[in-house]
Design goal:
The structure is a homodimer. Helix content of chain A is 41%, strand content 17%. By secondary structure, the first copy, chain A, is an alpha/beta fold. In chain A, the strands form four sheets. In chain A, strands 9-8-11-10-12-13-14 form a seven-stranded mixed beta sheet, sandwiched between helices. In chain A, helix 6 links the parallel strand 10 and strand 11. The longest helix of chain A is centred in the last third of the chain and has 15 residues.
Chain lengths: 464, 464
């Protein structure tokens, strides 16, 4: 439901959604296949340190914990009430949550506005707003933070810790991002599914993320933006980069967005383009781009100029990259135009059939020492704003060795504030190199185009 | 060097490049770090069944094999001469190859036209053409086929066997594709790097691939197209789908393409668009799209109409997909418009908060039985042309179970000739599901957009 600006009492209480001292799980079933049971199980499994109060009218114990028949039976303080019971039972639970002075209410339950029960949803929202009990949801998957070992929801993963706050209206896509996190080292500060966002809005999480010390970049997946004014207001105040993917632009997508999270999209897609631009956020098109760009903005400094030097042992990756740079409106410059001196110096790190153009092709025979020398020369040149490296796995390439050299160079030049991005696609050793690079804060990607998308976003972010 | 049409003597002899009975490796070093040594090592390691003749003027034995000081010292028949010696030594070896009546010559050596030695390269080409000794290269990485356990080059991988012929001008990108093959089950029939393609041209490999029983789809990476007429002629005759990625469209890319494989790009990119269209090939933009689309065309039947049904347990993947379908000019239709009966039937496989729109959202609680029922209903409906399935890993999703159900349904409906594509992104269990699906011939992808690209390509291929 629309708000005009982020509400202070909501922003203040969001800490109880992401770092609560105690949680009541209403609908905590004894049966492992049920959502309510999974929530309690995941809290325990991931090592949540606060108190857990399962609420179940027909149980005295759930997963070894004392269970309560109603919320009102809990005599201690409850920060967060997590609701996973059928929709028709929710209203009375909301009143109970207020009665016990809960700080934050999360309704995971589906079957509200998205299937036509808008009135029921609005009644609950109004009650929560009157009583200043912030409500996240309904129709969501959950939230958490790897920094707190906190996984509260219908979620089988805890992501690796890192700088990206993932705020997703879709639970399904949040799960995908969380799964990806572990497999591809996509580090998150916190994550939250907003679902129908009947009450708490994007703008309030945006304001919260600005204050969160672990967050360096906000990644936001939007199906419907019912409070554009608040979104723009909050985003403009934020110093951290914001990456947005907004779906529901297709004719059938408008209907699907409503059926999914009751999202209304009365405006054209151009309208959202304008709003997102006004907010100073970076809009991306595909899910892959969403993850790739967020990763770069989370880990790397902004790119201050467009003098990028690309160093590669494969001309193919070089060609794909320079075509894509031009496609995105930021063509590579020739090395001699960036720095005549650098073009000369870098010759020492390649065979005669290498190319000191840009991409700099140090050839398929490139050794770890040649890579290291070329990287160092490029970073140290005052005219160079950022470096894009690529490792192609030839029969003589020491993929891990080059990754380690890249990390060593990166550690030594971090102070210069120049972005470093890598490409490494191939067999298992290449995926290992990507993980190694990412663990050390260097965004590494499988394809040239992904890396170029990331580099260009670092430039766009600088212009905010 | 330009040709007007594929030459029969070349096409006939290409079998000696991909399935030779004997190979001489000129420049077969005793030192493991050298290219020539790697070539012999890989041939032996992968289980090449033919005869290997290392040629090295200073060795009597290489990797346990008898070595020959010159090609002329080999008294047996040699099908393929693979050359990996410095450029200035190549001319005399070419003459030796002719002298011993080799069927095919491959020059891996770099430092020809791409660094300004066009005359040397042209002299060799003219000699080979006069003597009807087909030459692949120079400046290439190698070739092979998993069906023959044949890996001939500077290549650390043998791909998994499958339907895709990978013809790449860039050695680096060929290596990337080969590495990807094992990691992502990207099945190839054969692979070849063409490098500077002084003599043997794309068109000749295209004609060869048409006859190759293992090939179902041709994937071609182009840096320069010096024989467009021959390319169009050969492609038009081919019944198998051809996927093309053509780089060197950017201003700096034109220079990089010359420095890499001596490719000349005198025409605008629109010209290549026209040529590729005229050839009846599908042009893709990014490397990821190149792999994804080739995979689908290799494994799946063409899509005969645009009545796609998408079945998903996550609304997010559904929204990303329907937006992307519309972006590509092939919007999804509502289920009730495709088949009113199907919309009714499919209701039985979802909870009340699911959505029978299209994407059909069977919800995050979907079981294996619900997936199976929904897939079966969709495939069996005569109005449905193809099915796109998506698995989102919720806390109750049996990811492997759904993948197995998808395979079971696919096996039972294969005869209908309707494409089946899957999406599955998340943790390790999702990557395992992707591999399992791919091993059974169902192209499965991490992101919605990749899968949609693949499905739309199957439709385009039908229109050739």
């Amino acid at each position: 439901m629309e708000i005009k600006e982020p509400r202070e009492y909501v922003v203040k209480n969001l800490k109880y959604a992401l770092n609560p001292r105690s949680i009541a799980v209403v609908g905590a079933s004894r049966y492992p296949s049920k959502v309510g049971n999974k929530v309690v199980y995941e809290l325990m499994k991931r090592g949540y340190k606060g108190k857990i109060y399962p609420v179940n009218p027909r149980a005295n114990e759930v997963l070894g914990l004392k269970a309560y028949h109603t919320l009102r039976d809990i005599k201690d303080e409850v920060d967060l009430v997590f609701v996973a019971v059928p929709a028709h039972l929710v209203t009375s639970i909301v009143k109970d949550a207020k009665a016990i002075n809960a700080k934050m209410l999360v309704i995971a339950t589906s079957a509200f506005k998205e299937i036509g029960r808008g009135e029921l949803q609005n009644d609950i929202t109004e009650y929560c707003r009157e009583n200043k009990l912030p409500l996240i949801g309904p129709n969501l998957v959950g939230m958490g933070s790897p920094y707190q070992n906190f996984n509260c929801g219908f979620i089988p993963y805890l992501p690796v810790s890192g700088p990206i706050a993932m705020i997703s209206q879709s639970g399904a896509n949040l799960l995908v991002a969380l799964g990806t996190s572990q497999e591809d080292h996509f580090g998150m500060s916190f994550f939250v599914g907003l679902g129908n966002k009947a009450d708490v809005d994007f703008s309030e999480f945006i304001q919260y993320a600005e204050e969160d010390p672990n967050t360096k970049c906000l990644a936001i997946y939007i199906e419907g933006l019912d409070s554009p004014e608040a979104f723009v207001k909050a985003s403009k105040k934020v110093t951290k980069p914001i990456v947005v993917i907004k779906v529901g632009r297709s004719k059938i997508g408008v209907k699907a967005a409503f059926a999914h999270t009751a999202s209304e999209n009365p405006n054209t897609d151009e309208y959202y383009d304008k709003i997102i631009k006004e907010a100073g956020a970076i809009r991306v098109t595909t899910w892959q781009e969403f993850l790739d760009v967020s990763l770069a903005l989370g880990y790397q400094p902004k790119l201050k100029g467009d003098n990028i030097v690309m160093i590669t042992n494969g001309g193919g990756a070089g060609l794909l990259s320079c075509d894509h740079f031009e496609r995105l409106g930021m063509p590579l410059h020739e090395l001699k135009d960036i720095s005549p001196l650098l073009a000369q110096k870098i010759r020492a790190y390649m065979p005669m059939f290498g190319s000191p153009l840009n991409p700099v092709d140090i050839s398929g025979t490139a050794s770890v020492i040649q890579y290291k020398g070329a990287f160092q020369q490029a970073f140290r040149d005052p005219n160079v704003d950022g470096v894009l490296g690529a490792i192609c796995p030839t029969a003589v390439t020491d993929v891990k060795g080059v990754a380690l050299a890249a990390i060593e160079v990166y550690e030594s030049i971090k102070g210069l504030g120049k972005p470093f991005i890598m490409i490494c696609q191939g067999g298992a050793e290449c995926q290992e190199a990507i993980m190694l690079l990412r663990e050390h804060g260097i965004p590494a990607y499988k394809t040239a185009e992904q890396a170029v998308n990331a580099m260009v976003a670092l430039y766009k972010a600088n212009k905010k």
